[in-house]
Design a protein that fits this description.
Elements (H helix, E strand, L loop, with lengths): L1 H9 L2 H5 L5 E4 L5 H11 L6 H19 L19 E4 L25
Parallel strand pairs: 1-2
Amino acid sequence: MGAVAAILYSHSSDYIAHPPVALVLDSPFASFPRLVDDLIKKGAIRVPRIAVRTVLSMVRSSVRKRTGCDIYKLEPIKGVEQCAMPALFITGAKDEMIPTDHGTNDPPQKRIKTR
């Protein structure tokens, strides 16, 4: 969640007062709803989709009541293009939670791969 927090901070009002020089983002997810769907498709969440949706709906309601935020609108990728500082997105091919395509909108030929 640190990578997502950094992305969200980079386009918040606090950023103006305390701007970072650059961002290093380790396994950021592009969108919370997309991440949940990807985890279900991949089998990382071994619960029927309807059960996951029901639990997420309950969690969404609880979070919204406590914080005023909607977890379904947690889509840090939407603010990345407005970010004016350099950012290094680091993703891992063997990451079991965050698929590598959440860290880029670039075609595969523009990605730097390591072992």
